[in-house]
Amino acid sequence: MSYTPLVENMIVTENLSKSVKTFDGLLTILSSIDLIIKSGESIAVIGESGSGKSTLISLLAGLDTPSTGNVYLNGQLLTAMHEDSRAKVRSTLIGFVFQSFQLLPSLTALENVMLPLELSGDANAKSAASALLTRVGLAHRMSHTPKQLSGGEQQRVALARAFVTHPAILFADEPTGNLDSKTGAHIIDLLFELNSEKHTTLILVTHDKALAARCGRTIQLNAGQQVSV
Questions:
Q1: Fewer CB within 10 Å: N-end or C-end of the chain?
Q2: Are 186 and 152 in contact (CB under 8 A)?
Q3: Which DSSP string do the residues of 156-220 spell out, in sequence order?
C-alpha cells in the first residue's frame, strides 16, 4: 500500500535501494530501506565502513538518486524531482555538516556563514551570521579565514553556517572525524544545543556508540541492510 506523506513525518523512505555497475557485476550498496523519521527527531546512523551510511544520507538529501524506491521529504516526493527541484528543496530545508568542514578558503568566517543567506537574498545576512557565530563562541574570530582558524574553530563555523538558514533537517556526516576527542566533544555539545533550540530534525552518521546513544533513535546498517531501527 502506498504511503500518503504527512509533514509530521519529515523523512519517509519506501523500499529504498542503490546499486552500481562494476567490472564484477552489479554491486548493491543499499537494499530495501524503509524509514519514517518524524519532525524534530534525532537519529544516529551507525554501521561499519562500507555499510552504506553515507550513501543513505546522500539519497535522503537528494544528492543522489536511488535505483529503486521512493524518498519523501517534508511530504514531497523527492525521487520524482529533477535535480534543479531537488537543489531548491535542499537550499530551503536542509543543512549539512561534514568532517572536512568544506569552508571556502578565500572567505572569512563571517562571509562563510553569510553565504547561504546571501544566495537566498536575505537582507539580514550579516546580522544573522554574526549572531550565530557569537552563539558558537567565535565573536572574536569573525574576520579570520579558515587557514587562520583551528580545526575546532572551523567546525564551529561550519555548524553556524549549517544552522543559519534554520533548516528543517540537518545531516551531520562524522562531524568530529577530524578533531581531537576534547574538541569533538565540545562540537557535539554545540550540535545538540543548536538542534534543540532550532527544533531541527537531526540525522547523524557516526562510528561512535556513545555519541549515537545521545540521539533519540539509532538506525544500524550492515552491508547495505537495515538491521535495527
A1: N
A2: yes
A3: HHHHHHHHTT--SEEEEESTTTTS-HHHHHHHHHHHHHHHHHHT-EEEEE-S-HHHHHTSSEEEE
What residues contact residue 110 under an 8 Å CB cut-off, 6+ apart?
A: 126, 129, 130, 133, 142, 143
Residues 170, 96 contacting (CB under 8 angstroms)? yes
Q: Which residues of 37-73 are buried (b: 16+ CB within 10 A; e: fewer)?
A: bebbbbbbbbbeeebbbbbbbbbbbbbeebeebbbbb
For the beta carbon of residue 76, count every other beta carbon within 10 angstroms.
17
Pick the closest to residue 133 from 151, 106, 154, 118 (CA basis). 154
pLDDT, tens digit (0-9, with 9 covering 90-100), for 54-93: 899 999 999 999 999 999 999 999 989 999 999 888 888 9
How many Å apart are CA 107 and CA 94, to the nearest integer?
22
Give residue 141's identity as a one-letter amino acid code.
R
| Short-list 46, 33, 16, CA closest to 215 | 46
Task: Tell me the pTM.
Answer: 0.87
Distance CA 193, CA 42 (A): 12
Residue with cell 521512493: 70
92 vs 56, 111, 120, 165, 166, CA distance in Å? 20, 19, 9, 8, 9
According to DSSP, residue 223 is labeled T
User: Is the dihedral angle over the CA atoms 212, 154, 190, 91 positive or is it negative?
Assistant: negative
* Alpha-carbon span 95 to 172, nearest angstrom: 8
Q: What angle do CA 173, 178, 179 make, to 5 degrees?
A: 110
